[in-house]
Amino acid sequence: MIMNFSPFRSDDELSVTKQGAVLILNGESFDFSSMGDGDTLSLDAFTSQWFGDSVTRAGDTLEVTLRLPLPANFSPEQDSPVPLLNVPDGTVSLPQPLPTPIIAGEVTQ
User: Fold this and answer.
1) First to last CA, the chain
2) 3-class SS of residue 27
3) What is the pTM of this model?
4) 50: burial class by Cβ within 10 Å (0-12, 13-18, 19+)?
């Protein structure tokens, strides 16, 4: 699987898990196992806000584009994410934001 990202400003969070041809996005499963070589699912086939483009299959490789939410303290890695190639099964590690700055006089626990 090739996973591309389309960043957008949002305080929403995205969690991604891959299990074979199934993607689980914030707990919602999307099963692409029935897609054949050369098949494309257009963006309007999805009701989820997390897809940023059509999903295609070329041979054994699925290619997806997910919308990546950028928090206020987004990192350069989030702003210009590189595609993930050969994504293994399990929780997908997404680019992380910069540390939240500590404001003078703020109490932390």
Assistant:
1) 40
2) coil
3) 0.88
4) buried
Whether 54 contacts 39, CB under 8 Å: no
Token digits of residue 62: 């699925």
Give the DSSP H or E segment for 28. Answer: strand 28-31
pLDDT in tens, 7-49: 999 999 999 999 999 999 999 999 999 999 999 999 999 999 9
Element (DSSP H or E) covering residue 79: helix 76-79
Q: Which amino acid is at 109?
A: Q
How many Å apart are CA 87 and CA 11, to the nearest integer?
25
- What CA–CA distance (Å, rounded) separates 84 from 69? 16
Whose structure tokens read 């997806």?
64
